Amino acid sequence: MAHFDLALLWSGSYHDWLLAGLALSLQLTAISLMFALPLAMAVALARLSPSRALNWLGVAFVEAIRNVPLLAQMLFWYFGAPEMLPTAWKEHLYAGNIEAISAVVALSLYTAAYMAEDMRSGIRGIPQQQFEAGRALGFGFLATMRLFILPQALRITVPPLLSQTLNLWKNTSIATVIGVAELMYQAQRVETASFRSVEAFLFATACYLAVSLVISALAALYYHRFPLRTLS
């Protein structure tokens, strides 16, 4: 039976690999979230817009993204999308970190599609009379949303958005299939180099669990601090 030894993960190159993978996974989560939130808001507003064209675009985006597996999207953005670009752009991408860029694009779009529906539900949870009151005061659709509806809807949407952030964090592990050196990639690298599969994947599992628990704790804290009440 192989000797179980966690000590090799606490120092040396294996330790550095795993920490680098953890740092990159956290960066992927943060950057993707930064792009996903404004995109989700734009899509949610498009779906609620009185413009039929914008409404159709919002529906098309949500349905197209949510009905295709994240793995397929990530492979498309890595292998397929660059080939459709002009040669100069493609060469520039391949000269840089195209793996991480492809992962961020796929994760951002995928997360935004789900967050958009959460935001739309939160906005629709605000009584229609408040929207009508804003319009009666002479404000347009966007001004009414910005000044009256969105500040109230935020309290409703924060909990599900934190839940989607948790899903985003876990989904970063899929980026390993396109060679992004995130946590799972580095755990596999350690396992290949050291044949310590239990230790390497135990470390990765503990990291995923720890960050997930932190995000879940933030959601629970928010629920406790700002309990949801029926708006009237």
Structure notes:
This protein is mainly α and 232 residues long. Helices cover 78% and strands 0% of the residues. It contains nine helices and no strands. The protein is flat. The model has no long low-confidence stretch (mean pLDDT 86).
Strand content: under 5%
Based on CA atoms alone, the radius of gyration comes out at: 21 Å
What is the total tally of β strands? 0
Helix run count: 9
The parts where pLDDT drops under 50 for at least 5 residues are none
Anisotropy-based shape: flat
SS class: mainly alpha
Order of helices and strands: HHHHHHHHH
How much is the average pLDDT?
86
* Helicity, as a percent range: over 70%
Distance between the termini: 65 Å
Biggest sheet, in brief? Answer: none
What is the secondary structure topology, with strand pairs?
Elements: H1 12-48, H2 52-66, H3 70-80, H4 87-95, H5 98-124, H6 128-136, H7 141-171, H8 183-194, H9 197-225
Helix pairs in contact: 1-2, 1-5, 1-7, 1-8, 2-5, 3-5, 5-7, 6-7, 7-9, 8-9
